[in-house]
Amino acid sequence: MTRRLAAEAIGTALLLAVVVGSGIMAERLAGGNAAIALIGNSIATGAGLIVLIHMFGPVSGAHFNPAVTIVMLLKRDIGAGPAAAYVAAQGVGAVAGVWIAHLMFAEPVLQRSAHLRDGWPQGLAEAVATLGLIGTIISTGRTRPGFTPVAVGLYITAAYWFTASTSFANPAVTIARALTDSFAGIAPASVPLFLAGQLAGALAGLFLFEWLYGDHAT
Fold first, then answer.
1. Are 66 and 169 in contact (CB under 8 A)?
2. Which residue, of 53, 58, 122, 134, is most buried by count of CB atoms within 10 Å of its CB?
3. Which ranges does the record mark as transmembrane (predicted)?
């Protein structure tokens, strides 16, 4: 369990370092062009996810996401105690990853985002993004498990662009990104809406894709 928790914490930290670090780099190099910045941020995030899932998946399952852990708990793939420990490790890792990104780019370590992401379309976007993420994990896990890391990375890269929220789809990521006033940030006041959308999307994705794939061999 110690190794599994370390894998979740380190993997989530590296994920946030990728998300926030690439956001800072993209913003600095894009010359004010938000589309170019988002291209850099989305490609780095998707590519990083593929590698991180391959790195840590054999140890912990590479959840890096409380929504994924909750789904695995409801599927009885993980117990309540380990699930709670996973979520705690993900939270600690996420905050550490933001701070590491700040240090790498000589930014103030302690920040608070002023980037408001409000309105029901943002909440809906997070529900859709998270539903699709859970669907990707469940469907490829049933049909092509070896492809799951690539599928998740590709899905998140696409979801950066087809969702109004740029697809956080992860409560730990959402809370941690409130601690960076960079391109990747989200104002603390916008966090509850995102968390509600993510929870709704995770539960909907679980029930929908478990029903769709209920007769398929695992």
1. no
2. 134
3. 36-57, 78-100, 120-138, 150-169, 189-213
The three-point CA angle 61-147-214 to 5° equals: 75
Q: Give me 197's structure tokens.
A: 């959308």
Q: How far apart are CA 180 and CA 214, in angstroms?
A: 41
CA distances from residue 184 to 8, 31, 33 in whole angstroms, order as listed: 21, 16, 15
For residues 179-217, one letter each, b for 16 or more C-beta atoms within 10 angstroms of the residue's C-beta and e for the rest, the string is bbbbbbbbbeebbebbbebbbbbbbbbbeebbeebeeee
Type of residue found at 34: A
Distance of alpha carbon 148 from alpha carbon 41, whole angstroms: 21
Tens digits of residue pLDDT in 62-92: 999 999 999 999 999 999 999 999 999 999 9
What are the chain's domains?
A: 2-212 (1.20.1080.10)
pLDDT at residue number 216: 58
To 5 degrees, how large is the angle CA 66–CA 167–CA 11?
45
The percent of residues above 90 in pLDDT, for the chain, comes to 98
